Amino acid sequence: MQNYNRGIIEEFRVNEGRVGGPFAGAPMVLVTSTGANSGRLHTTPLVYLREDDASGGPGERIYVFGSMGGAPKHPAWYHNLKAHPDATVEVGTDRYPVRATIMTGEERDRLFEKQASLRPQFAEYQQRTTRKIPVIALERL
Q1: In degrees, to the nearest 5, what angle opens at C-alpha 108 toward C-alphas 133 and 111?
Q2: Which structural domains are found in the chain, ordered by start?
């Protein structure tokens, strides 16, 4: 997965936040988090939902989804953000610090359903796993 992500990260940075392949046209963010166990920095490309997409107004939040393609376990980056919620994101050419918050309850469900309506593969990911796919808010600091 690291080599796969490395290629996406390079493409993202060269093309000012745009990537091709299965992610062509999808809103992408690079999240750099601190390893939960290692303490090392890790950068992960993710599809995101902007707050204005979720609530109708502009905001300082984006949301990412710990789908890992419907795998049985949460992705490592989720555990990293849970252990160390302060991170850095890159959206297009903009880079800024954020704080991660794990969404719960009705708000989590609303955001996940919104993402699944925009990107149906997220509903498919949820069907593939018994775990509840986490939704994480990344709020600009």
Answers
A1: 95
A2: 2-140 (2.30.110.10)
Q: What is the pLDDT of residue 91?
A: 95
Q: Which pLDDT does position 14 carry in this prediction?
A: 96
Phi, psi values for residue 85, rounded to 5°: -70, -15
Contact (Cβ atoms closer than 8 angstroms) between residue 131 and residue 72: yes
Nearest to 122 by CA among 73, 64, 55: 64
Cα 90 from Cα 45, distance rounded (Å): 9
Do residues 89 and 95 make contact, with C-beta atoms less than 8 angstroms apart? Answer: yes
Positions of the chain with pLDDT lower than 50, given as ranges = none
Which H or E run includes 43?
A: strand 41-50
Query: DSSP 3-state assignment of 41?
Result: strand
